[in-house]
Design brief:
Structural class of chain C: mainly alpha
Number of helices of chain C: 7
CATH superfamily of the largest domain in chain C: NADH-ubiquinone/plastoquinone oxidoreductase chain 6, subunit NuoJ
Oligomer: heterotrimer
Largest sheet of chain B: 2 strands, antiparallel
Number of strands of chain C: 0
CATH topology of the largest domain in chain C: Four Helix Bundle (Hemerythrin (Met), subunit A)
Strand content of chain B: under 5%
Distance between the termini of chain B: 72 Å
Shape of chain C: globular
Number of helices of chain B: 27
Shape of chain B: globular
Chains: A mainly alpha (about 100), B mainly alpha (about 675), C mainly alpha (about 160)
CATH architecture of the largest domain in chain C: Up-down Bundle
Number of domains of chain C: 3
Strand content of chain C: under 5%
Helix content of chain B: over 70%
Number of strands of chain B: 2
Chain lengths: ~100, ~675, ~160
């Protein structure tokens, strides 16, 4: 029998893989995709809870999350493209204007 | 009258504030402040206090003897744990005497000052300080608890400093003021420790208090309970008194204090501030009675100081210095009295001394004023022909201090001598020894004071012609106070005519309820108090009466001898003193230079103290430690800042990592 | 039986995620992520979330990932540009440790969850039910999301223009 724990552990694993990706990789695109992975993990956890508490709220929230992710993806990628146009780089470490 | 008690100290305070404001507001402008206005304020204030005091006195007389106390709480002051001290005033018969002396003599001297300080640049400032002094002194004598007394105690020290260094533009005056303040401070430090000791001791009994009324009840109720701490506290307080009242070893500031205006010397350094120590011992009589050791110390120091200072006064040239040492000496008499338990005798002498010493000082001031500032007696002489009133009043006051009956000091000094002789203090030989010291001192007193009289007012004229132009009797505003004080010197003694001469000795009787432990109803006093015969002993045995009369006669004889000797040396055979000085060159040199006490202090205390301050406190602690800390704060901030700056990488990923740290922290927090 | 399905789908999901995080080429990573998301969609189906399942495939795997792949192709990064400066060993270790610590902490929390598989009605996860909920208690967020999408569109248009 698949219990809530199975799903939640999976969600955690996916989430922290995403965290690792954000922190470890320097390529902006990969960072971005890791963020998407994190959002997915959270979605999974919401839906899991919805199932195991028999309430539909989780689904609704998951829907909103997805809509948000879509909007955020669009804008984020647009910014990424602009950065590449201006600075010819997609390495996160090169963008350190905040240092000084 | 309960409501008006506060008026006594606060009226002069108001006067001080008003005159102070006048002084400050006129200090920058070209116009001088109106002397009439300042005099009016400055003399009205203490006069109001005097009138209130008289009213209070009458009120007290109407009360039955055991209830002659009036108190008033101004506001609650210190409340902290066990310590509860209100700013409260109290007048019982003891403080009543002091208040009358301070306000009465004080008012007279204020009037005198109008003439003496006329045309002085700092006229308003003078009266402001003088009124401030009155306030402090009155707080001191009407205080209901030790901390309030200490406020007055410090306040008079401050005003003494301000007034001694009044003409501060001359550095010597400022130095004298500084010396007075610093030496006083040493005594004050001991006094403060004494207060702490009392508080701790009373806490240990379970009834922590610093209030005089409560302390008296506490000590009376537990005779013998506080002996150890009583000795310690009593001696500490007495050290404070040696500072304030110029006894050995802290008397050195008083002769220097003559740098101030003469009315200041009269008021502060003769009649009032210096007597604060005597008042304090009388106020804490019950404490001293618990410690025979402390009492012996007080009496011995007092007696030795009396003789010591009198001998220095013998050789002084400056008229004010003679009077200064005389004051130190007379204070020694007062302390000898209270040391043996004769509190009433000591206070009596305090009162009579106020009259004749103030009169002497003001007379000297009159002379100095007329001589255009000259203070060397060897440049005077035969002034009695020109300054009739001054010389007569000065003569009367001198007769009084010498102890010629029936003038005031005869009765008071004699009572002291008798009390010392017949006291039960210390080992059997001590009373006799102390009496002998004081007796010789009385002779020396008569001698030096009449030396001053003859040198100044009689004999040959030694002043220059140009001084003669300036010479005139002082205006009435100065001579009337002289007359008043001289009259006081004559009659003040009558309040204390002792029983052996058939008098009622009102004074002794009046002070009785305020002194010593409270007698339990109908019971026996503690052994100490009874031993010292504090409470109206009727030792009317014929043996002691005869002894008293004999001693009295001896005192008169030695006074006359002293006067005659002075007459011989300074009127008839004027070469004699010079010859004697040559013969005993070494001794004369020693005494003339005040036994080199100041020089000894300078070498052993002042210079090392200065060296330590400069090298240790300034060089090391101030320059290195404190500056190091302050600079260190700056350095630390800089270093810390550089360290923290490493967090600001500007790289977003690093910030994300910190996000994660925070998240982990939260997770683990939530788990628990 | 159910367990087998679960583990298969979970396996695909995790492997895809790992691949995405480790590949140097973003394109490879993106494709791996697509696989992962598809697996996730299957998992949603297992959870009786029909609507979310459809959405996952349509939106995420279908739209968002396609957008990302478009961008990757647009940027056309050469291998030189793709070269990342290596993360220091120390830093890497810290990051790894922090990640693991977080994960373990999370597991601790998970232990507090109750056991048991409650029964769900056949209509659970219906689009009808989702719609009903959205238009009643989640009305406000629904409207706000609409505005947000509008704002996003406007923003992108502005960003993408060469001159405003």
């Amino acid at each position: 029998m698949v219990t809530i724990h199975h799903f939640m552990v999976l969600s955690a694993v996916l989430f922290f893989i995403g965290v690792f990706g954000v922190l470890f990789r320097r390529n902006l695109i990969v960072i971005f995709m890791s963020i998407e992975l994190m959002l997915n993990a959270v979605n999974l956890s919401f839906v899991t809870f919805a199932r195991y508490t028999q309430s539909m709220d989780g689904h609704v929230v998951a829907f909103f999350v997805m809509a948000l992710a879509a909007a955020e993806a669009a804008i984020g990628l647009a910014i990424l493209v602009m950065i590449f146009r201006n600075r010819a780089t997609v390495q996160a470490d090169d963008l350190s204007l905040m240092r000084d | 009258m309960n409501n008006y008690l506060w008026l006594i100290p606060f009226s002069p305070l108001a006067g001080a504030v008003l005159n102070g404001l006048l002084a400050v507001s006129f200090s920058r402008s070209e116009r001088t402040v109106s002397e009439r206005l300042v005099s009016f304020i400055g003399c009205l204030a203490p006069f109001v206090s005097f009138v209130t005091a008289v009213g209070l006195f009458l009120h007290l007389r109407a009360l039955p003897e055991s209830e002659r106390v009036v108190t008033q709480t101004i506001f609650p002051w210190l409340v902290s744990g066990d310590l509860h001290v209100d700013f409260a005033l109290m007048v019982d018969t003891l403080s009543m005497v002091m208040v009358l002396v301070v306000t009465g003599v004080g008012t007279v001297i204020h009037f005198y000052s109008i003439g003496y300080m006329a045309k002085d640049k700092g006229f308003a400032r003078y009266f402001a300080y003088l009124n401030l002094f009155m306030f402090s002194m009155l707080v001191l004598v009407t205080a209901k608890s030790m901390p309030v007394l200490f406020i007055g105690w410090e306040g008079v020290g401050l005003c003494s400093y301000l007034l001694i260094g009044f003409w501060y533009e001359d550095i010597k005056n400022a130095a004298a003021g500084k010396k007075a303040f610093v030496v006083n401070r040493i005594g004050d430090f001991a006094f403060l420790i004494g207060i702490f000791v009392v508080f701790v001791a009373t806490s240990r009994i379970g009834h922590p208090t610093l209030d005089f009324v409560e302390l008296r009840e506490l000590v009376s109720g537990h005779p013998g309970a506080l002996v150890g701490t009583a000795t310690l506290a009593a001696i500490l307080f007495f050290i404070g008194a040696t500072g304030k009242s110029a006894q050995i070893p802290l008397y050195v500031w008083l002769p220097d204090a003559m740098a101030g205006p003469t009315p200041v010397s009269a008021l502060i350094h003769a009649a009032t501030m210096v007597t604060a120590g005597v008042y304090m011992v009388a106020r804490l009589s019950y404490l001293y009675l618990e410690s025979p050791v402390a009492m012996a110390v007080v009496a011995a120091v007092g007696a030795v100081t009396a003789l010591f200072a009198a001998t220095i006064g013998l050789c002084q040239k400056d008229i004010k210095k003679v009077l200064a040492y005389s004051t130190v000496s007379q204070l020694g008499y007062m302390f000898a009295a209270v040391g043996v338990g004769a509190y009433a005798a000591g206070m009596f002498h305090l009162v009579t001394h106020a009259f004749f010493k103030a009169c002497l000082f003001l007379g000297a001031g009159s002379v100095i004023h007329a001589m255009g500032g000259e203070q060397d007696m060897f440049k005077m002489g035969a002034l009695g022909k020109v300054m009739k009133r001054t010389s007569v009043t000065f003569l009367v006051a001198s007769l009084a201090i010498a102890g010629v009956p029936p003038l005031a000091a005869f009765f008071s000094k004699d009572e002291i001598l008798w009390s010392v002789f017949s006291s039960g203090i210390g080992p059997a030989w001590l009373p006799g020894l102390l009496w002998a010291v004081l007796f010789v001192g009385a002779g020396v007193t008569a001698f030096y004071v009449f030396r001053a009289v003859f040198l100044t007012f009689y004999g040959e004229r030694r002043y220059t012609d140009e001084a003669a132009h300036h010479l005139h009797e002082s205006p009435p505003i100065m001579t009337v106070p002289l007359i008043i004080l001289a009259a006081g010197s004559v009659v003040a003694g009558l309040v204390g005519v002792p029983a052996v001469l058939g008098g009622p000795n009102w004074f002794h009787h009046y002070l009785q309820p305020a002194i010593g432990p409270i007698a339990p109803p109908g019971g026996e006093l503690g052994s100490h108090a009874a031993g010292f015969g504090v409470h109206g002993e009727a030792h009317a045995s014929s043996v002691s009466s005869a002894a008293e009369l004999i001693l009295m006669t001896l005192s008169v004889i030695i006074a006359v001898v002293g006067i005659a000797l002075a007459h011989r040396f300074y009127i008839r055979k004027t070469a004699r003193p010079g010859q004697l000085a040559q013969q005993f060159k070494g001794l004369y040199h020693l005494v003339y230079n005040k036994y080199f006490v100041d020089e000894a202090y300078e070498k052993t205390i002042v210079r090392p103290g200065y060296a330590i301050s400069d090298r240790l406190f300034f060089g090391v602690i101030d320059a290195r430690v404190i500056d190091g800390i302050v600079n260190g704060v700056g350095v630390f901030t800089r270093v810390f800042g550089s360290a923290v700056r490493l967090f600001q990488t500007g790289v977003v990923r690093t910030y994300a990592l910190f996000f994660l740290f925070g998240l982990i922290f939260l997770i683990y927090k939530l788990i628990d | 039986m159910e367990l087998v399905v679960f583990y298969t789908l979970a396996g695909f999901s995790v492997v895809g995620a790992l691949l995405m995080v480790t590949r140097k080429s973003p394109l490879a990573g993106a494709l791996a992520l697509v696989v992962s998301m598809a697996a996730l969609a299957g998992l949603f189906a297992m959870l009786h979330a029909e609507f979310v399942f459809i959405l996952q495939i349509l939106l995420y795997a279908g739209a968002i990932m396609v957008l990302i792949i478009f961008t990757i192709m647009l940027l056309n990064l050469s291998p030189k540009e793709l070269k990342e400066r290596p993360v220091g060993k120390v830093k890497g270790l810290i990051i790894f440790a922090a990640t693991v610590a977080g994960f373990l902490g999370f597991l601790r929390v998970l232990l507090m969850l109750p056991e048991g598989v409650p029964y769900v009605a056949p209509t659970f996860g219906n689009i009808e039910e989702v719609g009903a909920l959205m238009l009643s208690s989640y009305m406000f967020p629904f409207e706000v999301i609409s505005v947000l999408l509008l704002v996003a569109i406007v923003g992108i248009v502005v960003l993408a223009k060469k001159s405003i």
